[in-house]
Amino acid sequence: xxxxxxxxxxxxxxxxVAIPTETVYGLGADADNPQAVEHVYAAKNRPTYNPLIIxxxxxxAMSNWAINIPAHAWRLAxxxxxGPLTLILERxxxxxKMITAQQETVALRIPNHPLTLALLEQFQGGIVAPxxxxxxxxxxxxxxxVRAMLGDKVDYILDGGPCSIGIESTIVYLLENQPIIxxxxxxxxxxxxxxxxxxxxxxxxxxxxxxKNLQTPGSDxxxxxxxxxxxxxxxxVLKETMKHxxxxxxxxxxxxxxxxxxxxxxxxxxxxxxxxxxxxxxQLYDCLHxxxxxxxxxxxxESLPHTETWLAIQDRLERAARPLT
Length: 325
Ligand code: TXA
Ligand code: MG
Prior knowledge:
Helix 8 links the parallel strand 10 (about 180-185) and strand 11 (about 200). The protein is globular and about 60 Å long. Helix 1 packs across helix 6. It is built from eleven helices and 15 strands. It is about 30% helix and about 15% strand. By secondary structure, it is an alpha/beta fold. The site of magnesium ion has 3 residues, from loops.
């Protein structure tokens, strides 16, 4: 049996299969099997009020899971799929409310990874897949991360190598005339508005608001977070804090744009990050997994440039971070 055949076999028998995507690894299950969907929530220890994305093989399959699909959705699907974009649409009555967390919306996406695309095509259904991490923790960008975090809870891991993008998809809410980004990702508001030829807003700056009761990423404040306390600090504060920690005999790891000025001996505790957001995103979770697995008291991350291309990474780090006390 090939890897894909094995993954297929497990999915069809209601088991959990970790799937590679271009963003992060997902914890996959058959969207039409309520017990399998329940297992996804249980394996992640995820509250049932937080809905799941359904992954599909073809844009036309949107109509199997959503109704009243607006023209915007078809245009975005055509331009961005397969790719790191999730569309929030009106739920088709056949979609189990366990997937949508009792809401009348459904989240859909076609991921861009050859193994998972082949799997989806052969599966001929939808695969629900949240990121394959315990709820609230760092997302996985390699099969090894999944094994380390959920190895005993997942029945099969389809190893597709490291994820090429490295952070979760952009999520766009399409139930109003005005599309609203509810989770930042690879596709920025400007990129989506170029495709649609009209303004697309981010959640905070939208003139129209999304329904208050809509469960969106970030409804839970702390997310994407390592166990080791993480602090997001501007360079001056970073320097002082490092000094303070060293004086107290504490150990720390650093994600910095600069070289190792502290001459920390363990190379894994000072990580020089790429200066551009694409490569930074690719490496972010892997670096944080490494630091979280080393014996340190804190992770310091140097603050990022305040431009649109860094927004998705800024969002993840803000949610991972704690205030410096
Ligand atoms: O890149 C990704 O999107 C990855 C890969 C595996 O596809 N998946 C992912 O899933 O990040 P997850 O569950 O970790 O985050 C998806 C977010 C959830 O936090 C949830 O709030 C939101 O999508 N979501 C899912 N269904 C929704 C719905 N029906 N309405 C509003 N938000 C929804
Ligand atoms: Mg997640």
